[in-house]
Specification:
The chain is mainly alpha-helical. The chain is about 70% helix and about 0% strand. It contains five helices and no strands. It is rod-shaped and about 95 Å long.
Length: about 90
């Protein structure tokens, strides 16, 4: 009877420890389903990045943005913004 009580106490402690881990970090619960919590965490971060619209900027090279900015600076003078097509040009 003492061995059964010891085994029961050991199981109770293991379950209590696991529940405490899940309470501290809810992603621990996915490991109970056989999923890797690091993988799930990275997928959740990617979904959040897509939701916020930062996914594209996180994956493009900073030099791309610098090149686009330089192209825009050359195409239009500083402080001039696109106001639509110009009608009645010099030839009209």
């Amino acid at each position: 009877m003492g061995e059964a009580a010891a085994e029961l106490e050991k199981a109770r402690q293991a379950i209590g420890s696991r529940v405490a881990q899940v309470q501290q970090n809810p992603l621990e619960a996915v490991s109970l389903l056989g999923l890797d919590k690091d993988f799930v965490e990275s997928e959740l971060k990617m979904i959040d990045s897509l939701r916020k619209g930062t996914a594209v900027t996180h994956h493009l090279e900073p030099s791309y943005f610098a090149a686009v900015k330089n192209g825009l600076d050359v195409a239009r003078p500083v402080g001039v913004f696109f106001e639509g097509p110009v009608e009645g040009g010099a030839d009209e």
